[in-house]
Amino acid sequence: MSTPESEHPSADTGRPVEPWGRVSDDGTVFVRTADGERPVGQMPDATAEEALAFFAKRYDDLAFEVGLLEQRVRSGALSPDEATRSVRQVRITVAEAQAVGDLAELDSRLDALKVTISNQREKNKAERAKGEKDRIATEAEKIGEGKDWRDGANRMRELLEEWKALPRLEKSLDDALWRRFSTARTTYTRRRKSHFSELNEKRDEARDAKERLVVQAEALAGSTDWGPTAGKYRDLMREWKAAGSAPRAVDDQLWNRFRNAQDSFFGARDAADAEQDAEFAANAEKKEALLVEAEKLVPVTDVRSAKETFRGIAERWDAAGKVPRERMKDLEGRMRAVEQAIKGVEDDQWRNSNPEARARAADTVGQLDSSIADLRAKHEKALAAGNEKKAAEHAAAIEARESWLAEAQRALDDFS
Questions:
Q1: Which of 42, 73, 93, 283 could be bridged to 321 by S-S, CB 3.0 to 4.6 A?
Q2: Burial of 343 (0-12, 13-18, 19+ CB in 10 A)
Q3: Cα separation of 183 and 181, whole Å?
Q4: pLDDT for 295-311, tens place per residue?
Q5: Is 243 within 8 Å of 214 (Cβ atoms)?
Q6: Is residue 62 part of a domain?
């Protein structure tokens, strides 16, 4: 509390008077403000000095609270919004304070805090703006290095609008951040223009290539050389895909011409295939009937007659023509089975009537008989000499040759 500058008798009561307050005859204590006096309390049983000292102590407590608030606000311990609310609350407390002292000074100090808070708010706003502009510049630099030509351009425009909505910073800092952002935009725009320029050039080349392919496709549309022409269309389609995209309107028009040429050719081929399929199906029915005749020859009882009959069936088989691909394996297999059955019987008869083969078989039987007799003699000799190893070797050789002899004898018996 400020120290009283003087004490003098009141003109009305004769009591001592303080600069910021007074005590009336009934013990009511008043505080002086810029708007005049107002009562702050009553102490009828105390002296004027005691009453003023009591309410001056309250003022000191209030001044301490203001000082503490000043310290917290200036140190940044409170956010601007928190500080504003605290100043508002303390100002109400000062306005309604039951205390004696320089309340106007406390109001003045609280007013000064409003300026401090405003400066802090502007500083925070500038810090946020700096962070936002740095974020914008960083994102723009990332876009500038990428290849997102559609969404990237849209995002660059959005970032520019975000930048315009932010407050300016200190000139050197603001200029530095703007240079980063502007350079990123310029780099991206230059690369984007270059990309689309190259793309347009490639599209023009694709248009020329596809126009040539359309001319070739249309020239082939009336061909009836089905296999080779279908292969040429496949080659043209590979070239079409490799040519890339022409300008959209032109690309669609060229594709319609190319597809119509293909459809015309393959439609004609499909119609020819359908006609051929009907012919082949009829041929298959003919061959089914021939198979019924051929399969009656099995089992073969008369080779000469069977061969003659089969030859006639085979001639009609060949004359019947082609059959559907899915029927070919089954029909040909059945026909071949009949042919092999006839041939098998013919081969058996030849083997049984071949004197040279019979002589070879008889000679083989004789040689094996002689070899077995010789081995048995050696086996007996080895046993007599007590040579069990040799005897075992001869016994194994005898067993093997007896097996061969049995096979050779069966072959010889086939000729009888």
A1: 283
A2: middle
A3: 6
A4: 888 898 888 898 899 89
A5: no
A6: yes
Residues written for the chain: 416
Are 330 and 342 in the same domain?
A: yes
The pTM (predicted TM-score) of the whole model is 0.41
Tokens 């780099």 map to which residue?
187
Q: What residue numbers bound the domain in which 407 lies?
A: 355-413
Specify whether the CB–CB gap between 394 and 382 falls below 8 A.
Answer: yes
Domain boundary among 174, 201, 228: 201
pLDDT per position as a tens digit, 322-334: 999 898 899 899 9
Domain boundary among 70, 93, 126: 126
- Which residue is listed with tokens 């000082």? 67
pLDDT at 4: 38
Number of structural domains, the chain?
A: 5
- Tell whether 154 is covered by a domain: yes
| Helix (H) / strand (E) containing 28 | strand 28-33
CA atoms within 13 A on the CB side of 200: 6
Q: Which residues of 192-207 are buried (b: 16+ CB within 10 A; e: fewer)?
A: beeeeeeeeeebeebb
pLDDT of 2 reads 39
The DSSP secondary-structure symbol of 168 reads P
pLDDT over 70 percentage in the chain: 94
Q: Using an 8 Å Cβ cutoff, are 60 and 1 in contact?
A: yes
